[in-house]
Amino acid sequence: PVRVSGTVQDVCPARGCWLDMTDASGEKLRIKVTDGAIVFPLSAVGQPIVAEGVLTKIELDHEQAVGYLQHMAYEKGQAVDPSTVGPEPLVIWQVSGEGAVIGK
User: Are 65 and 90 in contact (CB under 8 A)?
Assistant: First the structure.
């Protein structure tokens, strides 16, 4: 379990089930919760956050990265050109959230 703090950069526009934050050094971290367990509001972008959960390193190969990026783009009504996704693994640091406080 970890406790992290930073600033909310992005929120899942479909269900509010994840958010991306950056810490004081600029490192990006995703906070993910079970769909419906916590709903992060879109208005959280730009707000400070403190979150707790279990830190996991997710490493995606090229095919998985393309699928992941296409899914993320779909949620925002955008598109991803698979040819722009590099061959190196995509690494996502994610906290499986157990609780969060936004805006304090």
Answer: yes
Residue 5 tokens read as 């703090």
How does pLDDT run across 15-54, given as a tens digit for each residue?
889 999 999 899 999 999 988 888 999 999 999 999 999 9
Could you give the CA distance from residue 18 to residue 61 in angstroms, rounded to a whole number? 21
Number of H helices, E strands in the chain: 1, 5
CA dist., res. 25 & res. 66, Å (int) = 27
Closest of 77, 90, 101, 96 to residue 17, by C-alpha:
96
34: left (phi over 0), alpha (psi -120 to 50) or beta: beta
